[in-house]
Amino acid sequence: MIYAAIDLGTNTFHLLIVKDENGKLIEIYRKRFFVKLAEGGISNISKEAWLRAKKALQHFREKIDLYKIDTKHTSVMGTAALRNASNQEAFTAMVQEEYQFQIQIISGDREAELISAGVLGALIPFDLNQHCIIDIGGGSVEFIIWVENAIAWKKSFPIGVAILTQKFHKNDPISQEEIDELENYLKAILNDLFHQLKAYKIKHLVGASGSFEVLYLMGACKNGVAKTAYEIDLVRFQNITKNFIQSSLEDRLAMEHLPNSRADMVVVAFLLIDFLQKNHVFDELYFSRYAMKEGMLYELMN
Description:
The chain is of the alpha/beta class. The protein folds into two domains: 2-106, 2-Layer Sandwich (Nucleotidyltransferase, domain 5), CATH 3.30.420; 122-293, Nucleotidyltransferase, domain 5, CATH 3.30.420. Helices cover 44% and strands 23% of the residues. The chain is built from twelve helices and eleven strands. It has helices at 47-66, 80-84, 88-99, 108-123, 161-168, 176-189, 191-199, 211-217, 234-246, 249-253, 266-280, 292-301, and strands spanning 2-8, 12-21, 24-34, 74-78, 104-105, 130-136, 141-147, 151-157, 204-208, 229-232, 284-288. Strands 8-7-6-9-11-10 form a six-stranded mixed beta sheet, with helices on both faces. The longest helix is centred in the N-terminal third of the chain and has 20 residues, at 47-66. The chain is globular and about 50 Å long. The model has no long low-confidence stretch (mean pLDDT 94).
């Protein structure tokens, strides 16, 4: 059986088509469009973002029709930008009418559950009993603490990279004053997270796709025991973060292996990861190739 997941995120729209082989995801097709729904602010989808979205959705419709995937085997979900946009209803109506996709706009908690389901499928070879999953999106960041085969705590925070970039990254390279302001902001908003990390004695942080994929692309991952997840070299992570902080956008656009589409928001993403590491000190960091899309597919298959 063939299944399709469409994840309509704040920065990126994803399509993943897989075949179910005894509960294992066998990838058939994957495509990502950097739509940047929140480019003009997360409270409204701009005309330009709307047009970029339509281009992505047209491609998705064509591919799903090509593989003859019916509606009951297709999952379409929208996250932070669609949760917050004032023209959300007009957008979802357009998508239904023009592309026959029924969008489920999900809560942060629901998003966290799906991310967790996807990441657990990727982490099987590592057998981590206690860990914290982080998914850094454009509009929100989800944290899920997993202890002994169950979600012990989860929370979605409105600190996605599109929001943090607009608030704090105005100079290029980013200034020390902006870094200090960002860290003070994170310290205030993430107090509950740090309390939970300490209470559950969490020493492993697992990043799901997105910004953590940059670490993989830039050679910061160790040779893993699986192709679905990798351990991150902490020294390489620190060196890459330092380079990003000191770089201009022009510098980042010239960096080998850094996708141009991530160059504008990657600085705040890495400052967030670095802030977490400095304030809790994880023994190990991991990158999971699986995230919300894979969680959506596991749900469809079951």
